[in-house]
Specification:
Elements (H helix, E strand, L loop, with lengths): L1 H6 L18 E8 L11 E7 L3 H17 L3 E4 L12 H11 L3 E17 L5 E8 L6 E8 L4 E16 L4 E15 L7 H16 L6
Parallel strand pairs: 2-3, 2-4
Antiparallel strand pairs: 1-8, 4-7, 5-6, 7-8
Helix pairs in contact: 2-4
Length: 216
């Protein structure tokens, strides 16, 4: 029942550019559901699912989460590696994936909010270049000054908030949940938006490890 309701909430995550940048955003995590004492943790094989309208955004976040979990020694599989943009996002689709890979947990991430704003940046450091030329008159010179001003640029600020739940396959219910958020600034030339996927994946997986959901 829970997974069915989550899968119906396919939300939009547009505006995030796809160019990878070395500049990293930072993720803030708030736990909204503690792990029950009776939970069958730690989990050894996790199906990673992201629920956004953009298939590319789903693929990017799932890949980063899988990479992080693999680094911790936990086997993980991205749902987007077993489907394409035309595959129905339904409970039956993901249940079949669970059965296929033998997952003992499903990590589901969905978008809560995405806010973006744009501002114009001006260069306040005006620079001049001077040249001194002689004239036909004795001891009289002509001074030419060239002023250099950088053009105005646009800066984009993105703020993303995600909700993530871990569902136990054996219990068929969520056993842990967090909300995480990241902010990143980018300009029209140096695109840094992909760093949101990196920071969110690190925040989610680090929290899973801290809370004993995967082996430490």
């Amino acid at each position: 029942m829970f997974l069915t309701s989550i899968l119906r909430k396919t939300l939009l995550i547009s505006g995030l550019a796809i160019v990878l940048s070395a500049c990293a955003a930072s993720s803030r995590v708030v736990r909204v559901m503690d792990v029950p004492e009776s939970a069958d943790t730690p989990y050894k094989k996790v199906l990673v699912v992201s629920l956004f309208n953009s298939f590319d955004a789903r693929r990017y976040l799932e890949k980063e989460i899988v990479d992080q979990l693999s680094g911790f020694g936990t086997e993980a599989v991205a749902s987007t590696t077993m489907m394409n943009s035309l595959t129905p996002v339904t409970r039956e689709t993901f249940v079949a994936m669970v059965d296929k890979i033998g997952a003992d947990a499903v990590l589901v991430t969905r978008l809560v909010s995405l806010e973006s704003d744009t501002k114009i940046k001006k260069d306040d450091n005006t620079r001049y270049k001077y040249s001194l030329d002689s004239t036909y008159y004795y001891n009289v010179y002509e001074i030419n000054a060239t002023m250099y001003v950088e053009p105005e640029t646009l800066e984009f600020n993105h703020s993303v908030r995600l909700a993530t739940q871990l569902i136990s396959v054996a219990r068929q219910e969520p056993i842990w949940a967090i909300e995480s958020s990241s902010e990143v600034a980018q300009d029209a030339i140096h695109d840094r938006a992909y760093s949101i996927f990196v920071s969110e994946a690190k925040g989610i997986t680090s929290s899973m490890r801290r809370d004993g959901l995967i082996a430490r």
